[in-house]
Amino acid sequence: MADPNNPLLRPRSEDAATAAVPSGRWARMARLGTLATGLAGGMLAEGARQWAQGKRPSPRDLLLTPGNARRVADQLAQLRGAAMKVGQLLSMDAGELLPPELGEILARLRSDAKPMPIGQLDEVLTAAWGAGWDARFAQFGFTPIAAASIGQVHRATTKDGRQLAIKVQYPGIRQSIASDVDNVGTLLRVSGLLPAHLNIAPLLDEAKKQLHEEADYLREARCQQQFGNLLDSDAALCVPAVHADWTTDNVLAMDYVECVPIESLQHVPQAERDRVASLLIGLLFRELFEFHLVQTDPNFANYRFQSTSGRTVLLDFGATRAYGPDIVAAYRQLMRCAMHDDREGMDQAARAIGYFGSHIRADQREAVIDLFSIACEPLRAADAYDFGRSDLPQRIRAAGMALSTEKDFWHTPPADALFLHRKLGGLYLLAARLQARVPVQALARPYLGAA
User: Is 393 exposed, middle or buried (0-12, 13-18, 19+ CB in 10 A)?
Assistant: First the structure.
């Protein structure tokens, strides 16, 4: 237990800005039951209101009210962990298949998480480091500097002078993954928030696998160290060093790096925005084709900028994924053929990746190739592609929605494809946010070989 008399560590009074994380299975299930009851009550109230006005609303209209949207987002944010993460995965990986209203609900979960109370935090750190852990710190900030789906980050200074950022996992996360994912998947299906024909079972299975990996902070530490070694000679990038003596399976300690959100670069000169966006898109090509190791979470919060050095800081390696030679070769062929509008070659590559189900029709196959062609548009730009002036994300979404309306079509692609497309889509969005001009073709050419 932290010493309450230590002025450097004395907790502030807890307030409404914090929320205890329910760690028991039944407590977490009760939260979902409360959510389902609240949704039903909200539907009844809205239905009565609209009927009194002479309207005849559909069940879907009643479900997707602003009040119910808040109920879904707020309850999942309080559950955190797998319940919150599955919302993030659905909103990013299957976004083009979801009703816009649900996409907005789930998008809130990417950054909406209340920190756990100080008493619960102290229990987690005592379990990880032992009683009296505070004696080894000159200062420990109990107010987190970041809070996300499965953990929160604190700044601290050790007695030996190290400036650390310490990521602390919420209690009970690892034990609740399977049940939380299943319960949230069931809720989304029976509520009508998802299209009835959409088979999300493979995605939910992958969510469980990814979450178990992300909840293993020792694994994340190894991935972070691996990326640090791979990028050590790149002066434009910074991967904070891991401190093994403070790292456990649910606490990850690393260098604290003074930096600002990547979105703050919206206001810097065009050349700097272009440089940073090009750096990150070029890094994706290096990850896939050179390292065969991709950090697949493109959340903007995972990219920061160090103003004093001009370096881009890379964070959060829990979603790091290895890519085998076969799928790397298939993506090399897909991008190379897309660059030259070779539809037959793209078809072969898509089949090798696993994008086509056994019953796909010829017109559906062509629609998939159309979607790939749209997504690879920046590869066909001989000069820099202007993401700020492009409607590329909207066209990708429209093409995806057209496919999703065919009930006998949808075939969930392999997880490797889902996570890679998630990363590429996230980088496109970031480049658009920065209104950057990026020479995508020039960045990709060294890895694609001869046409």
Answer: middle
Compute CA distances 297 → 76, 88, 148, 421, whole Å.
19, 10, 13, 10
DSSP 314: E
Q: Which of 78, 83, 81, 74 is closest to 20 using CA atoms?
A: 78
**Sign, CA torsion 190/192/193/194:** positive
* Amino acid 300: pLDDT: 87
Rounded to the nearest 5 percent, the helix, strand and coil shares of the chain are 55, 10, 30
CA–CA distance, 285 with 198 (Å, rounded to integer): 31
pLDDT at residue number 69: 58
Task: Give the DSSP letter string of 121-172.
Answer: HHHHHHHHH-TTGGGGEEEE--S-SEE-SSEEEEEEEETT--EEEEEEEPTT
Q: Is 385 helix (H, G, I), strand (E, B) or coil?
A: strand
Measured at the CA of 214, the angle between CA 411 and CA 135, to 5 degrees, comes to 170
The pLDDT, as a whole number, for residue 10 is: 44
Rounded to whole angstroms, the Cα distance separating 240 from 360 reads: 46
How far apart, in Å, are the Cα atoms of 86 and each of 187, 256, 285, 376? 12, 29, 27, 27
CB contact at 8 A, 149 and 53:
no
| d(C-alpha 280, C-alpha 268), whole Å | 17
Q: What phi and psi values does residue 261 have, to the nearest 5 degrees?
A: -60, 145
Catalytic residues: 297
How far from chain centre, in Å, is Cα 311? 22
Q: Show the tokens assigned to 138.
A: 């000159």
**Dihedral-angle region of residue 80 (phi above 0 means left; psi in -120 to 50 means alpha; beta otherwise):** left
The helix or strand, by DSSP H or E, that contains position 442, with its residue range, turns out to be helix 440-448
Higher pLDDT, 76 or 134: 134
CA distance 184 to 189: 9
For the whole model, what pTM was predicted? 0.81
Among 427, 177, 160, residue whose Cα is nearest residue 282 = 427
